[in-house]
Amino acid sequence: MRTSKVSGLQWLYLQYILVTGLYMVEPWERAIFNCFFIGFIGILFYIVCSFIFVILFQAGGKVKILLKAVGGAPIMKQKCFSVNESTTVAELTANIRKILKLGSNDSLFLYVNQCFAPSPDQTLLNLRNCFAAGISELVLHYSLTSAWG
């Protein structure tokens, strides 16, 4: 009987076949099993990576926001802020009014991604999860006059 030396990935594959009992099935059945097994490992890897992503980047309790002026609105010196994730749009609007030194009669409009004005009771965590790209900050545009939707 002739024996050949097996090393590397071939050895691992042979061990895999012996452990799973796939040496007793036809080659096409083995291929189908391997596809399902690799698919399962891929899905498991995706779930683990998603969980790690949530733990590392989104569980900080803070939301990074980038404020951009639109139209004739005064430009802020500091444009990036880290705000508590439970802060509502109404609270953020009040803070922006203080920073810009606007009176109670002056209007201030906030827009998400140059698209729509969020409702005052929306939290910044919800807006970031729905409208921020990846792990970047939430982009909000502010204006003294109505600009979009």
UniProtKB/TrEMBL annotation:
<comment type="function">
    <text>Ubiquitin-like protein involved in autophagic vesicle formation.</text>
</comment>
<dbReference type="GO" id="GO:0000045">
    <property type="term" value="P:autophagosome assembly"/>
</dbReference>
<dbReference type="GO" id="GO:0006665">
    <property type="term" value="P:sphingolipid metabolic process"/>
</dbReference>
<dbReference type="Pfam" id="PF11779">
    <property type="entry name" value="SPT_ssu-like"/>
</dbReference>
<keyword id="KW-0443">Lipid metabolism</keyword>
<dbReference type="GO" id="GO:0097352">
    <property type="term" value="P:autophagosome maturation"/>
</dbReference>
<dbReference type="InterPro" id="IPR007242">
    <property type="entry name" value="Atg12"/>
</dbReference>
<keyword id="KW-0833">Ubl conjugation pathway</keyword>
<dbReference type="InterPro" id="IPR024512">
    <property type="entry name" value="Ser_palmitoyltrfase_ssu-like"/>
</dbReference>
<dbReference type="InterPro" id="IPR029071">
    <property type="entry name" value="Ubiquitin-like_domsf"/>
</dbReference>
<feature type="transmembrane region" description="Helical">
    <location>
        <begin position="7"/>
        <end position="25"/>
    </location>
</feature>
<dbReference type="GO" id="GO:0034045">
    <property type="term" value="C:phagophore assembly site membrane"/>
</dbReference>
<dbReference type="GO" id="GO:0000421">
    <property type="term" value="C:autophagosome membrane"/>
</dbReference>
<dbReference type="GO" id="GO:0034727">
    <property type="term" value="P:piecemeal microautophagy of the nucleus"/>
</dbReference>
<dbReference type="GO" id="GO:0019776">
    <property type="term" value="F:Atg8-family ligase activity"/>
</dbReference>
<keyword id="KW-0256">Endoplasmic reticulum</keyword>
<protein>
    <recommendedName>
        <fullName>Ubiquitin-like protein ATG12</fullName>
    </recommendedName>
</protein>
<dbReference type="GO" id="GO:0034274">
    <property type="term" value="C:Atg12-Atg5-Atg16 complex"/>
</dbReference>
<comment type="similarity">
    <text>Belongs to the ATG12 family.</text>
</comment>
<keyword id="KW-1017">Isopeptide bond</keyword>
<dbReference type="GO" id="GO:0000422">
    <property type="term" value="P:autophagy of mitochondrion"/>
</dbReference>
<comment type="subunit">
    <text>Forms a conjugate with ATG5.</text>
</comment>
<keyword id="KW-0812">Transmembrane</keyword>
<keyword id="KW-0472">Membrane</keyword>
<keyword id="KW-1133">Transmembrane helix</keyword>
<dbReference type="GO" id="GO:0061723">
    <property type="term" value="P:glycophagy"/>
</dbReference>
<keyword id="KW-0746">Sphingolipid metabolism</keyword>
<dbReference type="Pfam" id="PF04110">
    <property type="entry name" value="APG12"/>
</dbReference>
<feature type="transmembrane region" description="Helical">
    <location>
        <begin position="31"/>
        <end position="57"/>
    </location>
</feature>
<keyword id="KW-0072">Autophagy</keyword>
<dbReference type="GO" id="GO:0005789">
    <property type="term" value="C:endoplasmic reticulum membrane"/>
</dbReference>
